[in-house]
Design brief:
Rossmann fold, 29% strand, 235 residues
Length: 235
């Protein structure tokens, strides 16, 4: 069996991957596109000596974040392409399934901004879903991210050629995704606050028809292939 044929490790908690790649105690961390900041909140419970700023462009999600304070965690409103934070203020930056949400023409600018707010030698953890697999086949019916996910990887490649970064590590793994039923899937994916996927009754029926073959009495289980690249900020 060659490397390409080996099954990917199944990782339920991405913090386990991050912890093998970067120091997490006593770190100044910024998460870009933090969403509900689930990983940041979990990280601080395990590493309370660190401090995290969660940056989120969606005003509704940002308001929810601010309304749920946690020790060591602050929130700021803004996009990765214009980070409202000072130079060289962080040891680690996290982009968890968020780089592909940056407008494609602004991805290079966003990575330049990350370089600006990291100290020399600081780390950038970029985790992106791979455009493949049964779950992707269902989601792309209403939200096809093939172009933007490829653009995110190209942006990282281009950033490495600027001399501002070196790649320190790379990991691939699968993450489980579980849904109680189609209504649970629809709630979590089809009507986000930050985008309108224009889901009408006909499209909803198509998505449901693609989802239902994966449903079992205990719910529907998928795996989502992930690709992590760890970059180090050059002096």
């Amino acid at each position: 069996m060659n490397a390409a044929d080996r099954p990917m490790p199944l990782i339920d908690d991405e913090l386990e991957v991050l912890a093998t790649l970067a120091p997490l105690d006593g770190q100044r961390i910024v998460e870009l596109g933090c969403g509900a900041a689930a990983l940041a909140r979990s990280l601080l419970l395990r590493h309370p000596s660190s401090r995290i700023v969660g940056l989120e462009v969606d005003e509704r999600q940002h308001a929810k974040n601010v309304a749920a304070p946690q020790a060591g965690l602050e929130f700021a409103l803004g996009g990765a392409q214009a980070i409202p934070l000072p130079d060289a203020g962080f040891d680690l930056a996290l982009m968890l399934k968020s780089l592909h949400h940056v407008p494609v023409p602004l991805m290079a600018q966003a990575l330049g901004e990350v370089a600006r707010v990291l100290r020399p030698g600081g780390l950038l953890y970029v985790s992106e879903p791979v455009y493949d697999g049964p779950l992707n086949d269902v989601i792309r019916l209403f939200n096809d991210e093939g172009v933007v996910r490829a653009a995110a990887q190209h942006a990282v490649d281009d950033a490495l050629h600027t001399g501002a970064w070196t790649q320190a590590a790379e990991r691939r793994f699968d993450m489980p995704a579980r849904y109680a039923d189609f209504d649970d899937f629809e709630r979590r994916h089809m009507h986000p606050t930050f985008a309108d996927h224009q889901v009408d009754d006909a499209l909803r029926a198509r998505v449901r028809a693609a989802f239902e073959p994966h449903a079992r009495p205990g719910g529907a289980s998928f795996v989502r292939p992930m690709h992590v690249r760890l970059l180090r900020r050059q002096p």
